[in-house]
Design brief:
Oligomer: heterodimer
Largest sheet of chain A: none
Order of helices and strands of chain B: HHHHHHHHH
Order of helices and strands of chain A: HH
Strand content of chain A: under 5%
Distance between the termini of chain A: 73 Å
Radius of gyration of chain A: 24 Å
Shape of chain B: globular
Strand content of chain B: under 5%
Largest sheet of chain B: none
Helix content of chain B: over 70%
Distance between the termini of chain B: 46 Å
Number of domains of chain B: 1
Number of helices of chain A: 2
Radius of gyration of chain B: 21 Å
Number of helices of chain B: 9
Helix content of chain A: over 70%
Structural class of chain B: mainly alpha
Number of strands of chain B: 0
Chain lengths: 62, 254
């Protein structure tokens, strides 16, 4: 451990705003890039399932 | 014989094959990325010693350098895929190029932002218009231009062609970024790592950096594969194999 206490760790010497904003934004971007493909896939699957159901109904009607 | 080899290559790089193999790799890549990024970040933030000149602000290096490396390496990958899609009309390459453009742009933004907030306590300014910073900003604009071209066309094929050409033209920017710190006087420091020399940092500092490097590359790989697989099923939605996937997944309940 390079710091004596948790408070000192948070303070990062006098560099807290720089270090934490850099890590914070990077974390947010990384999190978004995990969520994005997952959300897209889920939405796409829902659409395709709805499409399949529509197609099945069409077939039954005709 | 050449025909057999060509057929084999075609099969291997088919979107369907990429989808299957990518699906097998994905959980492992996400897991490796998660573990390495967590270990690397905690190590770099809490356990690595402070720098004798910069104090604690240097801890930004653990994201800044890997992110910049991915922004540049991703660009090379995107341009290479663009070339492959132009010359050999490989659909998968076109789709990979598009995913790389999106992720590369994000990493370029990370590199620029972390660089700016590192610059303030170290150089006394967030931004200077020097060679390294300016060429890196141009890299972000190139990424955004490529992404813009992808969404500007109705047809995926023309979009892919236009984006690939812009990506290839933009490759001239890469050596400028790489050598900007040697060719011009700049505030930006020289390379931290050179493949042919011993690192100038002590191991307590460069080991977490290496962990973050591998973590970022694993993450980049996972994110690119995940996006490309989405792109594949969108474009191939009328094919039987994609319809089978929809049926199978919907049977599990979404």
């Amino acid at each position: 451990m390079a710091f004596d206490s948790f408070a000192e760790f948070l303070a990062m010497g006098t560099h807290a705003p720089y270090v934490w904003s850099a890590y914070g934004l990077s974390f947010a971007i990384i999190l978004w890039n995990v969520l994005q493909p997952w959300l897209v896939r889920r939405r796409w699957l829902k659409e395709q399932v709805a499409q399949l159901k529509r197609d099945a109904r069409e077939v039954r009607k005709s | 014989m050449w025909k057999a080899i060509w057929d084999y290559v075609q099969r291997t790089v088919s979107p369907r094959h990429f989808y299957d193999i990518g699906g097998q790799w994905l959980p492992w890549l996400w897991a490796v990325a998660g573990v390495l990024l967590t270990v690397g970040a905690v190590w770099g933030l809490a356990y690595a010693p402070p720098d004798y000149q910069q104090g604690n602000s240097y801890r930004i290096i653990f994201i800044h350098v890997p992110a910049a490396s991915i922004a540049m390496g991703g660009y090379v990958l995107m341009a290479t895929c663009g070339l492959i899609s132009l010359v050999w009309k490989v659909k998968t390459a076109e789709m990979v190029a598009r995913s790389v453009a999106a992720i590369g742009a994000w990493f370029c933004l990370i590199a620029l932002f972390t660089g700016a907030v590192w610059g303030k306590p170290t150089w006394g300014t967030y931004w200077v218009w020097d060679a390294r910073l300016t060429s890196m900003l141009i890299l972000l604009f190139l990424y955004l231009g490529v992404l813009g071209l992808y969404s500007a066309y109705e047809s995926a094929a023309s979009a892919g062609k236009a984006a690939a050409i812009l990506a290839l033209v933009g490759v001239v920017n890469l050596p400028i970024i790489k050598y900007s710190v040697e060719w011009w006087n700049t505030l930006h420091q020289g390379s931290t790592f050179v493949a042919t020399a011993r690192p100038t940092m002590p191991p307590e500092m460069y080991l977490p950096l290496i962990v973050m490097f591998f973590g970022c590359y694993a993450f980049f790989g996972a994110a690119v594969i995940a996006r490309t697989r989405n792109e594949i099923v969108q474009r191939e939605r009328r094919t039987q194999w994609v319809k089978d996937i929809v049926r199978k997944e919907s049977a599990h309940g979404i």
